[in-house]
Amino acid sequence: MSSGAVRNAVLVHGGFVDGSGWQPVYDLLVADGFRVTVVQNPTLSLEDDVRITHRALDAQDGPAVLAGHSYGGVVITEAGTHDKVAALAYIAAFAPDKGESVNSLIADPPPGVPVPPILPPRDGFLFLDRERFAASFAADLPSGQAAFMADSQVPWGVDALGGAVTEPAWRAKPSWYLVATQDRAVPPADRRAPRLN
Fold this sequence. Notes:
The protein has eight helices and seven strands, in the order βαβαβαβαβααβαβα. It is an alpha/beta fold. The strands form two sheets. Strands 2-1-3-4-7 form a five-stranded parallel β-sheet, with helices on both faces.
């Protein structure tokens, strides 16, 4: 499958947010002639998120680039073995290996690395501290937009963080990685992924 012929893009969001965060990327890709699908994962479990991503991939009319942000990187790592995935794009995302999960990747943060202000689980779900949301998760956005995102957080299921990858797609598919040097949500060691193809 030639990546030069790919005109479909499937975008997978991370935790605490929904797919609307992809709108600026969506607009750019559509302007460049891509057919774009934004997956709306419930982030309850990795298994469910992979199933919903596969449903979006099944609907494509040809090969697609599968992109993930933050926790979405775990989803695309597991879902990316789908036949219609031509390549993977990690956007400041986790890129786990076999047996790894968000939990295992964030278990021992390096000294000096900011830890996101995740509140203790409530009924099996996680939220970010609203007062610290902008600084940790949306520092480059206008204050009004960051406040809206803080107030419209999507509950992130604890089970999703524990979902371990069984077959990392990046081992078999061409993969690219965007490192966001000012990101305060995904630890730097997990954003730099020299092992990717």
